[in-house]
Write a structure and sequence with these properties.
Number of helices: 3
CATH topology: Alpha-Beta Plaits
Distance between the termini: 7 Å
Structural class: alpha+beta
CATH architecture: 2-Layer Sandwich
Strand content: 35-45%
Radius of gyration: 13 Å
């Protein structure tokens, strides 16, 4: 399984906008054939900090996600709301195995 943790720091005035944009992206992403999880996490202590946990069957499925209309719309919509560039860190998912 191919997983990515995407670390995002959002400008305070756009937290609610970011959450809504992520909801729309999440709802479409979990419908992708290769998707296993797509979680949106908000820090309990620092509300402007988020982690997107994305799990796909393969690297190819993760790459295909970045070509979908919903991802491209999300990417363009949230770009100006970032307090700093988002950072994606790839991991090999070991468990669960499927």
């Amino acid at each position: 399984m191919h997983t990515t943790l995407v670390y995002v720091h959002v400008k305070a005035e756009h937290i609610d906008d970011f959450i809504e944009a992520c909801r729309l992206n999440h709802e479409a992403s979990v419908q992708e054939a290769g998707n296993r999880r797509f979680d949106v996490l908000q820090s309990a202590e620092e509300p402007a900090l988020f982690i997107l946990y994305e799990a796909y069957v393969s690297r190819e499925d993760a790459a295909a996600h970045k070509q979908t209309p919903h991802y491209l719309a999300w990417r363009d919509r949230v770009a100006e709301w970032m307090a700093s560039p988002r950072e994606g860190v790839a991991y090999n998912g070991l468990y669960p195995e499927k």
